[in-house]
Design brief:
About 45% of the residues lie in helices and about 15% in strands. By secondary structure, it is of the alpha/beta class. It has one domain: Alpha-Beta Barrel (TIM Barrel), CATH 3.20.20. The strands form 2 sheets. It has an 8-stranded parallel beta sheet with strand order 5-4-3-2-1-10-7-6. Strands 8-9 form a two-stranded antiparallel sheet. It is globular and about 45 Å long. Bound molecules: zinc ion. The site of zinc ion has 4 residues, from loops.
Length: about 280
């Protein structure tokens, strides 16, 4: 059965010093398996520290991923904003690749009043170019660029959109944020069957290999008519995470689960424990 690892979105709160290196050490101490580098407000890692990060992560057996800038919109009206979005994603990919990260996650676009199809076409064009231009570290397992399922209905990124996009663009795979799927359907996506439907959709369109190597976000979440409002700790939210974890187990999903709850490692450990309880 492929391994499913659990970890935090960024440096655990209990790391002491707020550095990526201390974060990696703390993940290992806690018995977690992975950490997402938060490049969401810019990449604050240079090439030299990227190499140190990669070495330490290897040494400690911690898998890494990265979350690219929040300021990406491949359906922006202004060409400058598209160009800036491309630069931000490409820079995140280059540094993440040097860090030995396996995936880079990003929020692809807003609909901006356009039809979902028009937005899809814009995102598809841009991501195809990104894949062609991206610099990956030679001789290593190639990093996967992953648009994320988004939490607000104004944002491009339903599971169907991302699965279709991934089936059409080589080198792309979805990051499935189950809290976002739950929030953007105003709480409807929340049962074992709903989570199984998402996993079946991935398996049918992208093949079993996509389930062997998933990248997942989970957090408690508050939502309304327009979707996501804010992240919460799991126990303060109505996300049915035990049902979700059971579905992941039953589908033999492998890869990384990144916890984005405000309490980070507490919920990451809760998810890991609950998952292990099933089997
Ligand atoms: Zn995200």
């Amino acid at each position: 059965m492929p391994e499913l690892l659990f970890g935090t979105a960024g440096i655990p709160h209990s790391a002491g010093e707020r550095t990526t290196l201390k974060g990696i050490e703390r993940i290992a101490e806690l018995g977690l398996g992975c950490m997402e580098l938060e490049f969401v407000r810019g990449v604050r890692v240079n090439e030299k520290s990227a190499i140190e990060i990669k070495q330490l992560a290897r040494e400690k057996g911690v898998r890494l991923s990265a979350h690219a800038s929040y300021f990406i919109n491949f359906n922006a009206r202004e060409t400058e904003k598209i160009t800036a979005s491309r630069k931000r994603l490409l820079h995140a990919v280059r540094i993440a690749s040097l860090c030995g990260a396996r995936s880079v996650v990003f929020h692809a676009a807003f609909y901006m009043g356009d039809s979902p199809q028009k937005t899809y076409d814009a995102v598809k064009n841009q991501t195809e170019e990104i894949i062609n231009q991206a610099e990956f570290v030679a001789g290593e397992e190639r990093l996967i660029i992953r648009p994320e399922t988004t939490g607000k209905i104004s944002q491009f990124g339903t599971i169907e959109e991302l699965v279709n996009l991934s089936s059409e663009v080589n080198g792309l795979a979805p990051c499935v944020d189950f809290a976002h799927c739950h929030a953007r359907t105003n709480g409807k996506t929340n049962s074992y069957e709903d989570f199984c439907d998402i996993l079946s959709c991935i398996e049918n369109k992208l093949g079993k290999a996509a389930l062997d190597d998933m990248h997942i976000h989970i957090a408690g979440i508050a939502y309304g008519d327009k979707g996501e409002i804010k992240h919460l700790n799991l126990k303060e939210s109505d996300l049915n995470y035990p049902a979700l974890l059971r579905a992941l187990k039953d589908f033999r999903v492998g890869g990384l689960v990144i916890c984005e709850s405000p309490n980070l490692e507490d919920d990451a450990l809760l998810l890991q424990e609950t998952y292990r309880y099933f089997g």
